[in-house]
Amino acid sequence: MATYTNDILYLQALDSYSYDLEQCVQKLQYILGGEDHAGANYLMGRIYHEQMRDYPKAKEYYLRALCIDHEYVQTYYYYPFLLIDLCDYKEAEHVLEVGFSLPQTDKASLYFAQACIHEKQEQFKQAKKSLKAAKHAALNTSFRYFIDEQLRRIEEKINVGKKSKKKKAKRKNKTTTNVKFNSLLD
């Protein structure tokens, strides 16, 4: 009976997360005061990560959620982003590997998180590869459109790097030409 009540409270907390954070936290504290609940720990981790920016606490709750139920898929969509914020890319990759191994996860969302890891490390070609895999795995048009926008953004970052290298090369050639010309005049 307590599990059923906790599940109902969790659903209410999840519903109120976007508009009434205080009510959400109260319900989660009630659930967490009793038995272990993966969903409540995951949502509390999101609150500490996204709202309060208390990353150590968020990590603690996400890990607790995974310890309670390592197949609780929602955690695999948000926990890697906390690890990215903490610059713990190896751990984020490991979490994604586990997420990819679970049959019930949304692979497109996991590929997007993987692309974010590569982008933060300035591995733009790898990021593009992960985004293309996300687009291929996507099951709805809006997510595919979102991925297209991300691909354009990454492509712009790549082009900015190429343009600055070309400008530097042009400046170097121009400086060399001026030096040669000036030395001929002397």
Automatic annotation (TrEMBL):
InterPro entries: TPR-like_helical_dom_sf, TPR_rpt. It comes from the Bacteria. It holds the Pfam family TPR_8. This is Tetratricopeptide repeat protein.
